[in-house]
Records
---
Amino acid sequence: MEIAVDSMDLFDVNVVGGGVELSVPVVVIKAGVYNGALRDGDAIRKSAPLWEGMPIIQTKVEGIDDHPPERIVTCRKQIVGQVRNPVWSEEEGKIRAEAWFSDELGSPPEIMRFLEGGGKLGVSGAYFHETLNEEGEFEGVKYSARFYDLVPNNLAIVMYPACPVGTCGINVESFNNSEVKKMTSEMAIDMDELVSLRTESATAKVAAAESEKVKKELGEKVVKVEAEKAKIAAEKDEMAVKLAEVTAERDALKAKVDEAAVEAKKQEFLGKFPAENRAAAESELLGVYMEDPAKFVIEHGNRYAELLVGKGPQQLGKEFVPEPDVESQEWKAMGFPTEKEIAGMFGIEVKE
């Protein structure tokens, strides 16, 4: 939460006059555009009760200066008075209050004498606030930001307030009874108590404002995280669907490859037999061969060898003329045993 002051460049001015414990009217703040930022009526109205008990400060003895650098004012030499009974005026758009001064509050006698004589002092409110960056125009004055959630910190006596003397300030208006109010001993407040109450009150208000800010930022982060989680979950679901599709496609291709490999193995086996023996080889031997090649050799070796050599020399009543064994020659060239060699392994004589 930022802190702003409603004052401009300042010069030292001595305050003179006679004094007494007293209370004079003060216009604390008025709705308007100051230093390029808007404080609208709604924001000021909400802050009105919080001005109760705010210290009126002066940073130099017998002089008028700006706000002190401290965020919370506790220095007894700086506190010269106190704001009491703040009231919001809807019609005029400003906060009226009473400015109390006394020895009990550490008020310089010069200030009290000056005010008792009708002197007017400019004031500048310091307050924590939230900022909304926006442009607009209020009562003919343009602004580039708007302050809201004002939390008062102090009311300083200054020479050049942003809200000019006459519009805001101490003693710029009169009480209805036109009399200066005297502070009784019962109404006085011990300075240590004032500092203690001010510190606790301001700290609590700032802490509450900071807490709300943190809650707001945390809420925004939670919303953002939840949105990211939803996005990630949606992307995860989408990836899961794509993965399932790719997996199904892979499994289908693998099945086709496996099927083609089985078919190639069958054709390779049947291609070893003469055409006239392939049907018998397929019905008698292929199943065992595909299931267990080792069992096939042990249990069906003889039949395998018989089917490899063909039916014999009689074909259609013609003299049998053996054709060149091209396949055996190719197998031999590749280092594989020929059909004759395989038949010999099983003790079968193959005639040329």
Note: The first strand starts at residue 2 and ends at 5.
---
Amino acid sequence: MGSRMDSIDGKIIAQLGAESGITSEELGSRVGLSPSAAHRRVKALEQQGLILGYRARLSLEARGNPSTVFVSVTLTDQRQATMMAFEQALARTTQVSEAHLMSGESDYLLKVLVREDDSYERIHREVLSTLPGVHRLVTQFTIRTLASEA
């Protein structure tokens, strides 16, 4: 099996995307394969790098009832060394759940989850503003989340 997906692989990926803990028996039943064939297909998709892993979907309570804050970050410059230092330090921060290099006015967009036993003020002061190369932080607080993968 090459790195190309067929329609059965597409169905498998769709099923696993919706419910990653599904058994091979149930998966096979849903996509028209035997349990062993479904299992072999999943292993092949993993080996090809098309399935990167599995995760548990945690409730808000299990995640500390976090508030979601989006932070636009502008660096002092866009030199490779500045960006690499920022990205390496950012990778060590536990409060940032997503980070995107952006086009436009700011350099990065961060999704920060603030646990109910913490404060954004502390994260801003002790974490974000101390990251290397930070020139400006612009913060937007989420009022309500309408759709989320988490």
Note: The first strand starts at residue 67 and ends at 75.
---
Amino acid sequence: MNNVIKVGLYIRVSTEEQAKHGYSIDSQRSRLMEYSNDHKYKIVDYYIDEGKSARSKLSNRKELSRLLEDVKTNKIDRIIIWRLDRWFRNVADYYRIQDVLDKYHVDWECTDEEYNTSTSNGRLYLNIKLSIAQNESDQTSDRIKFNFDRMVKNKHPIFGTKSLPIGYMVIGEKAKKQIVKNPDEENITNDIFKIFRETSSIRKTLLKINEKYNQEYQYQRIKKVLSNPIFYGCYRDIEDFCEPYISKDEFNKNQEIIKSKNVKWSDKHYDYIFSGLVFCYKCGCRMAGNSSRRYSTSRTMYVNYRCNKNGLHKLCENRNGVNERLLEQWLVDNFLVKMQNYITSLENTQSDSQLDNVEYKINKVKTKIDRLNEVYINGNMNKEKYENQIFNYKSELKDLETNLDKKPIDLKKYDSILKNANCMDIYQKLDNVHKRAFWSEYINKIEQDGDGGFNIFFK
């Protein structure tokens, strides 16, 4: 049984090949199984990339990726394929994968073609075969691109409904195909443009759409809808390609709004004072900073921290944001008092008497272990009882030594702040970067307490 070769059967078929040549999955599977049984191979698994062209990116051939993972974990000794073109039609991709196979000493065989990579002539023949296959594939790709360009110019879709954005569908067959509005998604698509028209905000559009239609769309999906020319009937610069949802003028106006908001955010970088320090009191998630300007009244920056789980996905009940200005004022007013209370509690827990008590307990447990060993060696205790007790004693000893090894917190940095009566006045003169550095030096995290105040967790 130790000499049995474990094989993985790799099958690939593109949609076009299956339709044109009949290279079905079932026919390949049957041939590979027959070949493996004839050679007394042990089949470990089947790896089937359906609807994947040989020109597909390696990352898109999921089963090939799974096959390589099994190669790396030594589950497979050999890979069986039907023909070389099922494997690759690209010389560079082939050698990239071959390097992995060589590293883990895994080889491959074709059931209906013969290759010998152990000789220079065999490797030359393989390179020539792959180069020819790649050239054929390139020519096919060029023909397909030419065909697609011709179809687009004649306003025929080159894809199916799955490739279309929300609101559209493909009907008809072959040359009679056309893109039409999807009646099941027409209302929600119209509402996306209507709400954005009213709010000029992608985020508000997202929240209202998700709430109204009980959806879980992401921000980027709504943005892509608003930015896709197909919604005014244009595809690949061919106008009147399909029935529009909005006019070209409205589409261009939407792009100006989106672009202006992007400029507004990137034009002025804002340094959040409490970045990484504010946590949601409901779900414990770190809260993200969010800033905006209200140009209609002033150029004031409004900064808040909010729980992302509520803002985008409604997975948290906490709808209360934390206003940066109010949080900063609360800390300035309460920080020194909270710090003094923290130091007092630390001094109580880090007293010499308590550390001495831990050392006393450690010595006591060690004495028990010595006595237990002596009893067991003298034959006055059976092995099972001994192992149970020694395990408990060693676990207790480990916990005590961990507590003893904990480095006492240095209180000097806190004392220096408390002794400086003007520290908060100095703080007010700092820029945001140095303010953040100040809080990060002493605070591990800040949480809302649900009543308008905050809980501080010092370092």
Note: The chain has three domains: 6-138, 181-267, 327-458.
---
Amino acid sequence: MSKNKNSYQRNFPVTWEQFHRDSRALAWRLLDTRKKWDRIIAVARGGLIPAAIIARELDIHYVDTVCISSYTLKHQGELSILKRVNEFKDRGDRYLIIDDLVDTGKTGKAVRDMIPGAYFATVYAKPDGRPMVDTFVAEVSQDTWVLFPWDSETTSNFVNPIKIQGTVVITQ
């Protein structure tokens, strides 16, 4: 399914502080699994920051990346695998895949196909992508654009309330 700007009815802005808290919450969930991972595989680019936070919190020193591109701004297109995992052993049972968000599940499926035995965790998940991940921190609706802090500026501009006089305000 191709996403375009009109398919997003809501924005979910995430601050640096919130993203850090949510990434640490993901680390707690991962710790609770009592699994042992040898390495983290970050899905670049969005998974780089939570992977760094989780690597610190779980004391994992080996971090690698898979690089997959599918978005241009708010438009999702075809997947392009730019880089695979450098070293791959077994089925990847001791690998922990980290991403910021699972949306449609297309990227998640591509990573799962590369490393079938890995444990896959994301900070945020949408309903279409949820089956691809083992755990996540927060679910957002499919029609919501998650606005990550690296994609926005901090401003002191006036923000409209969600509801004004009985109508819902859609900001894009």
Note: The domain at 18-146 is CATH 3.40.50.2020 (Rossmann fold).
